[in-house]
Structure formats: C-alpha cells, structure tokens
Design a protein that fits this description.
heterodimer, A: alpha/beta, Rossmann fold, 3 domains, six-stranded mixed sheet, three-stranded antiparallel sheet, 11 strands, B: alpha/beta, two-stranded antiparallel sheet, elongated
Amino acid sequence: MRVTHFPSRAAGLADRMSGFVEHLRMNGLRVGPKETGDALVALSAVKATDAERARQALCAVLTGDAEEWRRFDELFDAYWFNAGKQRAGVAQNAHVRVQSAKPMIWQSQDQGTGTSQSDTGNATTPDPGDGAAEGMDGKLIATRTANLSRRDLRELMDEEALKQAETAALALARAMRDRRSRRRKKALRGPALDMRRIQRASLARGGEPLDLYRRARPPRPMRIVALCDVSGSMTVYSRVFLAFLKGLIGSGTEADAYLFHTRLMRVTDALRDHDTLRAAGRLSLMAKGFGGGTDISGSLDRFLSGYGARALNGRTVVLILSDGYCSSNPQALGDVLARIKRKARRIVWLNPLKGWKEYQPIAAAMRAAEPYLDAHLPANTLDALAALEPQFRQL
Amino acid sequence: MTLKDVQNELAAQGYVADDRLSMALHLAQTLGRPLLLEGPAGVGKTEVAKAMAGWMDTRLIRLQCYEGLDASHAIYEWNYQRQLLAIRASEARGGADEAQLFSDEYLLKRPLLEAISEEKPPVLLIDEIDRADEEFEAYLLEILSDFQITIPELGTVKAQVRPIVILTANGTRDLSDALRRRCLYSFLDYPSKETEMAILRARMPEVEGVLARQIIGVVQALRSEDLEKTPGIAEMLDWAAALSGLGVNDLAKSRDEVQSTLVCLLKTAADYDAAPPEVMDRLIGKVA
C-alpha cells in the first residue's frame, strides 16, 4: 500500500492544504492563500473524510474555468493519491494505480472497512527522516519531470529567435487586424456626440447638456487561430514555429494557439505565461510525444468539435502550420477543412516545404486540402515568415 | 442540510443535478459565495436558478446581461423626473429641502440593488455575464465579494441577508480573473444518457419507456453529429412534448412525424439539411 508521504513538518490538514494549493499553483491554476482558507472552510462544510465529497468540494472552490475544471481530477489524484509519483515511473497502468495508490486517509471509505480512526492516525504520522529522499509528494515529482523535458524546448526558443519571431508575428497580426465597424457605439472618447444619451443625462441637470457622451466606431479585430504541427517531420521547423506562435500570442491581438501531432492541445495559456521558464515547462509537458507521427485530419476534427465552436467565428483567420505529411486519409482532411471553412473567414496554410524550389503539392493530403485554402504560403525560416506580410494584407 | 438534501430538493423541483453541481450549490449556500456556471447552451444553467428559487420559495431576481449594460440599468438610478417635479413643487411652496431629494423615495432600484435590499434572501441570477462589457464586471466585484453597494449620495447599502447568486456564462469572451476568484465554479456539460433519462422522466412522466429511450438515444446521437447548434436539454424536452402531443409511440413507425417535428431540435437551416430522412433513419435504427 502506497501512502502519501508528507514532509515531516506538515503538521496537519492546514499545512497539507497549503501544499495542495501550491501544487495547483505550480500547475498553472491561479490560486493563492485566500483559496487555501476557502478550501478549508469548504471542507468543514462537507463530509471531508469522503474522498469523493472532498474532491467535488475542492473542485468547486479552487477551479476558475472549464479547462482547470477538467484538469482538476488529475491534479487532485497527483497530490492526495501520489499519482504524480506513479506517473513519473516508466509504465503507467491506470489499473495498478487505482489498486496501489489509495491513501490511508480515505482508504476506509473506499474499501468499506470501518477503521477510519486508526487509518487517519497512520497517515498523519510524519514521514520519518528520509522524507526528502523519497520524493515526499506528488508536487516535487511533477516539477522534476518538467525539469527534464523542459530543457530541449527552452533551447528551441532562444532569445534572438523569439524576438525575430515576435516582430514577424506582430507584423502579420497587424497586417490583418482592424477592420473598423460601421456602427457607432458609445465610447469614452470618440469623434461623434451621442445625442440620445446627452439628452437623457441633461434631465439630471435641468435640461442643460453638461455631460457630453460620445460615440465611436469600435475596432473589430480579426482573430487568429494557429494550429501548429509538431510531428516528427516538422522537428526542424518547430523551433521557428513555436517562437512564431509565442510572438502571435503576445502581439496583442486575439489569438489562439494549438499544437498537434496525433493529439491536439491548446497552448494559448501556456504561451501567454509571463514566466518564460514556466511557459516552456508547460509546453514541454503538453508536447509529450513531440516528434511522433501526424494525424492532421483527426486533430483538426477534434479541434472543430471541441474548441472550434468557441474559437471560430466570421472574423477568424485559421493558420495551419504543417508540411502536410499525414498518416490519415487525405479525403478526410478535405472534408474537415471544408467544415472549418464554413465557420471561419479564411484558412491559410503555412508550409515549410513550399519554400523549396520547384515544390509541387504531391503529398496526397496537400492535394486534397488545396481547394479549401485561401492561401498556401511558404514558411521555412523566420525571414520567410516576415516576407508574408504583403500577402496577409490582402486576406 | 447535506448534499443529498440539495439533490432531493432540486429533484422535487424537477431539476436533476449531478454530484458536482449539487456540491457546488451546497457550498454556495453554506459559504455564502456566488456560483459561476459555465457550459454549452441548453444544458440547464438558467434552470438551476429557477429550481433554487422554487425550492427556497423565494423571489428569483434575474439580470439578463447584454453588450452595453451599464450601472444605471443593473444597479440603481435616480428618478430625475420626480426629483425635478419635487423641486418645482417645493419652490412653489417656498423653500426647497434638497436633503430629501436623494432619499430612497427617488431611487429606482434595479435588479442588483433590489436583490441586496430584500428581506428574505432571494436568488439572484446574473445571466450570460460574458455578454456584458468588461467594465460591468468591475461593478459586480463589490457586490459579489461584500454584498454591498455604494451609492455616493446615500452611503453604502449592505445586504441584510446574503442572496444566493448564480452567474452563468457560455464563453462568448473570457471572464476576468478577479471575477472568477470571487466565485465558486462548476462546469455543466451535456448530460449522460442516464441523467438525461432522469430529466425526461422528471419533467414529462407521461412519455413512456420505449419512446423515452428512443428520444434520448436519437438526441444523444445527434449531439455527436456535426451540427452548428447542438440540441440542448430544452430542445430535447420540446421534442418529447411535440412527439407525445402528436400521439407518437414508436419513432420507427412514425417517420413523418419525426421529420416534421425536427424543427424542435434543429435550429438552423444548415442543421436541418444535415439531418435528412436517411440520417434520421440511421439514428433511429441504432437506438431501436
């Protein structure tokens, strides 16, 4: 039986809870001391010895959006059930984990034996001496894994390339930003006076129009959704593209970034992280399987049925960064692009291979995709990306 | 009050809540914190508030958010016309008493102020908060954390009893961290087969076993099709009502009725085209 080994100084529930909150914070949730207090209060309001109840209660208190809400179970298991430790091992078997990773504190509930008193006593016993060597809790393990896989990506994104990519992305984003709306809406500063509002406000001043309200045409920024291929065949270019994505996210436009190989993940938040090191760490964790095969149509399909509903609208430009070498059925790629095209304004495919001389889209997938693309542009280096600006202006 | 009570009481109102949601509601009540509900359209976010109000037997105060909603429509406004009239009248009588002009009498209470000044804790539903502008979120912060509203002319109005506050959003834009931190959070997704069955049974006991199973099966299958507007629970209930109203007992035997009642489920022309009789045949064939 694996028991969660808490560091010897963890005196009681309060200490462990602050450890849990710290663990959540390191995994990117925005929680602080206030939430620790809230969590403890919430636990006192429910039957805290029941793991399921505690999980539900903490979930309601500590999460803030849909993504965190979905990740919470995993993080909860990692901390309280030592699953983080298990995961750090080589082969992770869900079944084994369930069998072995039940903690003492909630064991009696799960197995139905009524010895909760002694069990609780057991689990609270501080880990004697070798706690640090054992790797104490899930949190530490999680950082260590991050540390290992973090390095390669950090090297990918060196300072210079990042800066260049940022300028390139900024220029591109600017090129397709801002079609202004025709409609005038109320604004703090604006060229036109809002007569209706002024009249209404003048009632308060006995009919004198003292408060002047204004109207302006609000900007209607183009949204950018970038889907970047990080499969094996793209490894050479991923350095450029990741930097480009980071620049795009940081460009101040509404941008959304996803990575895919055989799976799809949203990396917008990870890229937006001000702490570059942590951002790289989060990215590395997400890009597990980085450099494997590709399933473009499957990934796009998952994007469309999941994030797509929210991410796409009539003002969205979809950027796909991929070489088009794909293991799935080319027809399927055509279909899914057709569906994306219905929901988005433009689809642009940035293809690193297209920078080659005498490139022909011979890959079957690329041929199936071509009819649905508004533009199929070369992008193998940062310079090539920067040179795209005039084309983007026309989109 | 325990978690089971919450579930049972909501069930008595005809609302089937899963464990997570009832836990969130339970905590919202015991901790006196607002609850933010997110999820796709049509999964019963707004209904939660109605069911809560029904259970507590109290008023449901609803603030529907929209772009351009401002404080004077959501919190309070001075009744300028009456104030002006009062000034004129007191001038005619000689000697105006301006202190009275800014009193409760001339205050138009909008939903948020109303919710705070109720005697019995009402349920305050702030619907589709993500439609309101970001500035409006800032107004909400004071109300949601301290349950008080500051009116410069009158002072601070503090809630006598904390209302139960439920905010809903479905992701038109990202909400600010400040707002999220003040709320408990729960995400509602489309219900599982069993839950949806329970909902149908609670809402329309007259729909019988076979038909109910078929309806749920078809709706669940439709959700996994590629549609622009995925049918929610409300649509499912509409459809069930339409079918039972037409006296249908078996979907496979009344294909015409099925096709003509699809308007209850599919709300855009493209979706309607995406579900021709052949597709419906396939879906019904699967569940039958």
